[in-house]
Design goal:
- This protein is 39% helix and 19% strand.
Length: 196
């Protein structure tokens, strides 16, 4: 960690670091550096994720409040970024809490920013490379959507996390409403967040 921070803070010493939970593709640390009052986020990932997040940040930072990326080194499995630390509460904690007003406010805030993300459009729907170019075009029809749902919920891990009853409730819901995707090809492909 000290070697990584010396790339951005060559004359500074690491005061403390704290491993943060929640990263699936990345490892995140909260850093305190002796020469700065504000903490920083150290995000360690692989080269592809590092480049992808950098390209995504360039597209988003003028439209959505995202942490500033101060420094990145995207090379191999020791790729990392030093980013602005944003103090706050994890969305999961709010959603599992009992404060209805806080849950509603968080839902509104998330929806507002997801709508802003949808203003970023692409020539065709699909999956990106690390430069945000569509490399695997996807054609979504009611039947392919249902197949995706079955793959995620039955063949993937999601079903085991959700349990049998909720998995089948979601499958029944998607099957019942898949017809709503009949004319989706007439929509302009836009950026969405994969967690939602």
């Amino acid at each position: 960690i000290e070697h990584m921070i010396h790339s951005f803070f060559p004359d500074s010493k690491l005061k403390s670091f704290q491993l943060l939970g929640g990263g699936l593709s990345n490892v995140n640390y909260k850093l305190k550096v002796k020469s700065h009052k504000q903490p920083f986020l150290l995000r360690i990932s692989n080269e592809e994720n590092c480049k992808f997040e950098h390209a995504l940040h360039k597209r988003l930072h003028k439209q959505i409040l995202v942490p500033e990326i101060y420094f990145s080194k995207c090379q191999g499995n020791q790729s990392y970024s030093i980013m602005e630390w944003k103090e706050g509460v994890h969305l999961k904690e709010i959603m599992y809490g009992k404060k209805v007003l806080s849950i509603k406010q968080a839902g509104y805030y998330v929806g507002y920013h997801l709508a802003k993300m949808r203003k970023i459009t692409f020539p065709e729907p699909g999956l990106f490379n690390e430069s945000l170019e569509v490399i695997n075009p996807l054609t979504i029809t009611p039947n392919t959507f249902q197949k995706f749902m079955e793959e995620f919920l039955i063949d993937g891990h999601a079903g085991s996390w959700l349990g049998n009853e909720l998995t089948h409730t979601l499958l029944d819901f998607s099957n019942k409403h898949k017809h709503l995707l009949k004319n989706i090809e007439n929509e302009t492909p836009a950026l969405v967040h994969s967690d939602y």
